[in-house]
Design a protein that fits this description.
Citrate Synthase, domain 1, 20 helices, 2% strand
Length: 427
């Protein structure tokens, strides 16, 4: 049995390389997708043009990580999910302990990072602070050092893994530090050698354990947001930058820049804002009839109801179901959660009657913000940082595997509008 994630990967990678060679040799000329003009102008939505083995999103099932539906692994630690993403298997107890030790051994944040963060403008966005810290830490890159020394292509994945362990070992500490610096929460809190990754992140933020409830919430949040195929903006950006052999610090920093965009990482705070506005409008938890009327008012004014609908899914996002289950367990009497739950009972039927939504069901963002808010994290701008800490697991696992398999540099062919018009005319 492998003792470390590096040993585990060393045993797996040769078979993965052989599989890729066989697929390309036997089926390299087969077509897997056609592209319409609408797709070319519409952000390549739905175009099958890249490979991602860590996870898939099925329209009728939701997120599946390495063949395992997310609801079956929602209670696993984020560290276990990282092992699963990389290897296709959940770790044994000894393997989990070894990975946690690896992350702690790589978990020291250089002092210069804190100096840079404290020197930034007091009004800096927390995502800009996290991204800056990751980029500054490029100074620690093992990949860059070994590449400059002349390592072989076959060893790229090892150096990428080393950088990834540094990033995952420190990103939760840095993110917690960003929160405490940006929102003047007091001194930085040192990481613990006794807690798991998610629980320690919650502790370093300054969240009270509350009999483990907040720790459980943080583990759940980090696990549910860890990966979501390879085509989303953050993962795709990280992949593209990494394909140029930019080291993981550059690649993850680029991915985080994409995650900071309003159309990608801000959805949960927009959903929570709508919930709070609804509560303010009705002076507390609204009735289902009041929610129905307000939903129609929102739609008739040309606006959308945040958190409902998804680019791929055509069922309730199982990640929403997982968050809702947590809320029913711990927050049944909490007004914000009660409102979220009642909205879920009402809005899908309104959207069905409205008739314009391809998917009337809630996505993960419809419920996640309410849990963060109830746990005491009320600084909405910070929510994307939490998302980033989690999504680093997926971005880095994809990057390591791509370095192991020698995935080519990303370079799609672009065409002009004039070319498209000409082709359409000829057709």
């Amino acid at each position: 049995m492998a003792k470390t994630i590096k040993e585990k990967m060393a045993g797996i990678i040769p078979k993965l390389r052989e599989e890729r060679v066989a697929v390309l040799k036997g089926h390299g000329d087969k077509k897997i997708s056609d592209v319409s003009v609408a797709q070319a102008f519409g952000g390549m939505r739905g175009v099958k043009g890249m490979i991602c083995d860590t996870s898939v999103v099925e329209p009728d099932q939701g997120l599946i990580i390495r063949g395992m539906p997310i609801m079956k692994i929602k209670d696993k630690l984020p560290e276990e999910i990282f092992w699963l993403l990389l290897t296709g298997e959940l770790p044994s107890e000894d393997e989990l302990k070894g990975l946690q030790k690896d992350l702690r051994d790589h978990g020291e944040v250089p002092k210069y990072v804190w100096k840079v963060l404290k020197a930034m403008p007091k009004t800096s966005h927390p995502m800009a602070m996290l991204d800056t810290a990751i980029l500054v830490m490029e100074n620690e890159s093992i990949f860059r050092k070994r590449y400059n020394e002349g390592m072989t292509k076959m060893d790229y994945w090892e150096a990428a893994l080393e950088d990834s362990l540094i990033l995952i070992g420190t990103i939760h500490t840095i993110a917690a530090g960003v929160y405490r610096i940006r929102y003047k929460k007091g001194d930085l809190i040192e990481p613990s050698s006794k807690l798991d990754w998610g629980a320690d992140y919650a502790r370093m933020l300054g969240m009270a354990p509350r009999k483990g409830q907040n720790y459980e919430m943080m583990r759940l949040y980090l696990t549910l947001h860890s990966d979501h195929e390879g085509g989303n903006v953050s993962a795709n950006t990280c992949h593209t930058v990494g394909s140029a052999l930019s080291d993981p610090f550059y690649a993850v920093s680029a991915g985080l820049n994409g995650l900071a965009g309003p159309l990608h990482g801000l959805a949960n705070q927009e959903c929570l804002n709508w919930i709070l506005r609804t509560m303010e409008k009705f002076g507390g938890v609204p009735t289902e009839k009041q929610i129905e009327d307000y939903a129609w008012e929102t739609l008739n004014s040309g606006k959308v109801i945040p958190g409902y609908g998804h680019a791929v899914l055509r069922v309730t996002d199982p990640r929403f179901t997982a968050f809702n289950g947590f809320g029913k367990k711990y927050l049944a009497k909490n007004p914000v959660f009660q409102t979220v739950d009642r909205v879920f009972n009402v809005v899908p039927n309104v959207l069905k009657a409205h008739g314009k939504a391809k998917n009337p069901w809630p996505n993960v963002d419809a419920g996640s913000g309410a849990l963060l808010y109830e746990a005491g994290l009320k600084e909405f701008e910070y929510y994307t940082v939490l998302f980033s800490v989690s999504r680093a697991l997926g971005m880095l696992s994809q990057l390591i595997l791509n370095r192991a398999l020698g995935t080519a540099i990303t370079r799609p062919k672009s065409v002009s509008t004039a070319w498209v018009k000409n082709q359409v005319t000829q057709a």
